[in-house]
Specification:
Helices cover 53% and strands 10% of the residues. By secondary structure, it is an alpha/beta fold. The protein folds into three domains: 2-81, SRP54, nucleotide-binding domain (Four Helix Bundle (Hemerythrin (Met), subunit A)), CATH 1.20.120; 97-285, Rossmann fold; 298-425, 434 Repressor (Amino-terminal Domain), CATH 1.10.260.30. Component of a signal recognition particle (SRP) complex that consists of a 7SL RNA molecule of 300 nucleotides and six protein subunits: SRP72, SRP68, SRP54, SRP19, SRP14 and SRP9.
Length: 439
């Protein structure tokens, strides 16, 4: 896919005259590529129409960077398509919320329920899991195993066959126990499809969820729209989670799910394990959809973010797959020096939605400073290798920096998260001087 899009744009920028035909050819190529990426035909067509309105042929002819203009227009258009215009309901810590998961069997509901619970638990919530899947044998065992591993309370039954009854019992119990995030897992199959949707409607009616999350397997292809729409018609879907993004699928179906449910994607699943779960970030997602990798814009932005003299060394280290604590420290320093223009930094993978959420720059800066104090304490102590970490070291670092053990753990988690994202830079071909913007 990436190949054909870059080829299309490349061909076009090589053409001496950019006329309507050249632009059309280019858009047709891109259309084919997006269809292969499972973006629904209707959505692709809409995008094509919009691009034609946006891209001004005169600008292109005047010798502006055509490739960039078109690429940017497509990129923006896809980002817009993933934004339904309103955020989803967001549960509040300490206040009881019921969240119901729906989706076809195999989409990853049960796995994602646990990931969602675990994600919040790490942030100090009191989540609980309810298994309202009575159709599939072993459904309760699977949830129980996951929940036990994550030390999350769970509810379910081997005997009861009425999912509505179990859902209500579970929700009631955990409300009494003051859990603030009660997650209801449901079945994804039935003897008859109609019965499945009726069951979802009944479970929702009985448990009154604050949020219904539609879980979608990224590899379902063009079926995404109908599937999402079918669920939306029986329950009030308010958010989407796309799973198996670690596989080959590019996840174009997400655009369909957003269009069909008028709800945003909130997380993506990136593996079978509990912590392979990321807050949805539109830019890297679209880059991937277009086959540009998560690193689109990175080489351009690195000029603005990282001081000139640090650039070659940083790229070299990243290409070796070494995202060290030192690198994190230096990038934090750069980030603080830039002050409120943390905007630029949001282009760097991993630094955006989690570390520096929009509108909360002050808090983020305080957090980063806190991390740096603890990292100083680690270095002072003579060993900055985060891999050689144990309880007593963590306690020493906490003491040395005047922070709590929990703070140190949080900083180390943050390091692990960034290191994982940045390890994808391994094997990166480092462009020679002057080649940067050609990427
Ligand atoms: P459910 O039937 O909707 O409850 O789906 P499950 O949670 O049982 O998941 C079905 C399969 O997909 C299991 O083998 C999961 O381990 C796997 N799975 C779920 N999410 C992901 C993901 O993000 N990445 C990968 N690679 N596998 C996943
Ligand atoms: Mg399940």
């Amino acid at each position: 896919l990436g190949g054909s899009i870059s080829r299309a744009i490349q061909q076009m920028s090589n053409a001496t005259i950019i006329d309507e035909k050249a632009l059309n050819d280019c858009l047709n190529e891109i259309t084919r590529a997006l269809l292969q990426s499972d973006v629904q035909f209707k959505l692709v067509r809409d995008m094509q129409t919009n691009i034609k309105k946006i891209v001004n042929l005169d600008d292109l002819a005047a010798g502006h960077n055509k490739r960039k203009i078109i690429q940017q227009a497509i990129f923006n258009e896809l980002c817009k398509m993933l934004d339904p215009g309103k955020p989803s309901f967001t549960p509040k810590k300490g206040k009881t919320s019921v969240v119901m998961f729906v989706g076809l069997q195999g989409s990853g509901k049960t796995t994602t329920c646990t990931k969602y619970a675990y994600y919040h638990q790490k942030k100090g919530w009191k989540p609980a899991l309810v298994c309202a899947d009575t159709f599939r044998a072993g459904a309760f065992d699977q949830l129980k195993q996951n929940a036990t591993k994550a030390k999350i309370p769970f509810y379910g039954s081997y005997m009861e066959s009425d999912p509505v009854k179990i859902a209500v019992e579970g929700v009631d119990r955990f409300k009494k126990e003051n859990c603030d995030l009660i997650i209801v897992d449901t079945s994804g199959r039935h003897k008859q499809e109609v019965a499945l949707f009726e069951e979802m409607r009944q479970v929702a009616e009985a448990t009154k969820p604050d949020l219904v999350i539609f879980v979608m397997d990224s590899s379902i292809g063009q079926a995404a729209f109908d599937q999402a729409q079918a669920f939306k018609q029986s329950v009030a879907v308010g958010a989407v989670i796309v799973t198996k993004m670690d596989g080959h699928a590019k996840g174009g179906g997400a655009l369909s799910a957003v269009a069909a449910t008028k709800s945003p994607v909130i997380f993506i699943g990136t593996g079978e394990h509990m912590d392979e779960f990321e807050v949805f970030d539109v830019k890297p997602f679209v880059s991937r959809l277009l086959g540009m990798g998560d690193w689109s814009g990175f080489m351009d932005k690195i000029h603005e973010v990282v001081p000139m003299d640090q650039q070659p060394e940083l790229l070299q280290k990243l290409s070796e797959g070494n995202f060290t604590l030192r690198i994190m420290y230096e990038q934090f320093q750069n980030l603080l020096k830039m002050g409120p223009i943390g905007q630029v930094f949001s282009m760097l993978p991993g630094f955006s939605s989690e570390l520096m959420p929009k509108g909360r720059e002050k808090e983020s800066q305080a957090k980063i400073k806190r991390y740096m104090t603890m990292m100083d304490s680690m270095t002072n102590e003579g060993n900055s290798n985060p891999k050689l970490m144990n309880e007593s070291r963590i306690m020493r670092i906490a003491r040395g920096s005047g922070r709590s053990v929990r703070d140190v753990m949080e900083m180390l988690e943050e390091y692990k998260r960034l290191a994982k994202i940045w390890s994808k830079m391994k094997g990166l071909k480092i462009p020679k001087k002057g080649e940067m913007s050609a990427l």
